[in-house]
Design goal:
The protein has 155 residues and is an alpha+beta fold. 29% of the residues lie in helices and 34% in strands. Helix 3 links the parallel strand 4 and strand 5.
């Protein structure tokens, strides 16, 4: 299989409609397009220099393949990782590269623990976090997802 040549950049306002479609096509997410629009816009416009939100996309030309949103959750004192990859582009290293890029942005601010909400049967996502160098500290059930607290392994 030929290696996919994609790029990573920060999402911008012109990406909004395609990001909403990416979310809408994901069966595990049950939100109206209005809620999705408000949520994505909120994260795109959020500016907080002490704990910034990172909205990054993987793309080829103007086609968005994946999205990651990493936002600080003050109630948990951790960054929360969210990543969606279009189904036909999964298992090609896109999610790995995108999450790694986003995590490195957070690590520059001194953060090394994160949380992620993962569907119980999404073992490939758990393996992805292990490949990225994370250890799972705790797991708790939340709705249909399991919330994992992820800590970077010591070098």
């Amino acid at each position: 299989m030929e290696k996919l040549a994609f790029h990573i950049r920060s999402a911008v306002g012109r990406d909004l409609d395609e990001l909403i479609k990416l979310y809408s096509d994901e069966p595990s997410i049950a939100h109206s397009s209005g809620t999705l629009r408000e949520t994505i816009l909120f994260h795109l416009l959020l500016t907080d220099s002490t704990a910034p939100t990172y909205v990054n996309i993987a793309h080829i030309d103007d086609k968005i393949l994946a999205l990651s949103i990493i936002r600080f959750r003050s109630t948990l004192n951790n960054y929360e990782i969210e990543c969606i990859t279009k189904e036909n582009f999964r298992n090609q290293g896109i999610g790995f590269a995108l999450i790694n890029h986003s995590i490195n942005q957070c690590r520059k601010s001194g953060y090394s623990t994160f949380i992620a909400n993962i569907l119980p049967d999404n073992f490939s996502c758990i393996r992805l976090f292990e490949k990225l160098g994370f250890m799972i500290d705790t797991a708790t059930s939340k709705n249909k997802f399991i919330t994992y607290r992820l800590r970077m392994k010591e070098p």
